[in-house]
Each structure stands twice: as C-alpha cells, then as structure tokens.
Amino acid sequence: MASPIPVKEKKLMEVKLGELPGWILMRDFIPKGIAGAFQRGGVAGISMVLAAYVLFNYCRSYKDLKHERLHKYH
Q: Which residues of the chain have pLDDT under 50?
C-alpha cells in the first residue's frame, strides 16, 4: 500500500478541491520560486500564472464592475 503524498508535493491537477487553499498557501511566491515553476512547467506554467493573475484582478474589481453594469445611463 502506497503512502499518501503530502499536499505540498502534489501537482495542481492532482490536488482535490478541498485541498486547494492549503496547496496555494504552501507555494513559493518569491521570484526564484516563480522562475523555477516556469522552468518546470514551460508554457503551461506561464499560462496558469497569467490565468491566476486575471482571476485575482477580476475578483478584486468585481464590486466596481457590478456597479457599472447596474448603473443606468441616461
């Protein structure tokens, strides 16, 4: 019987939805760690970082976007 893999060592596609917040918090976000992720992942790593950046900014500005959408222009 194989021993369970620690969440920190799992790849993104192996992480279950409930483990995702803990997995994100264990990532190395210093420039050296991000550069290492790009080297290991290539284009996939870059696209995941870009997608995370876009999602983060959308969530941050959702309140303003929602207000603009509901605003009636006369």
A: none
Question: Per-domain residue ranges for the chain?
Answer: 7-40, 42-73
Total count of residues recorded for the chain: 74
**How far, in Å, CA of 63 to CA of 3, rounded?**
44
Stated pTM of the model: 0.40
Distance CA 24, CA 51 (A): 14
Structure tokens at 53: 């950046």
Q: How many CB atoms lie within 10 A of CB 71?
A: 8
Three-state DSSP class for residue 2: coil
Residue-level pLDDT at 16: 85
CA distance 4 to 43: 29
* Three-class SS state of 21: helix
Q: What is the DSSP letter of 14?
A: G
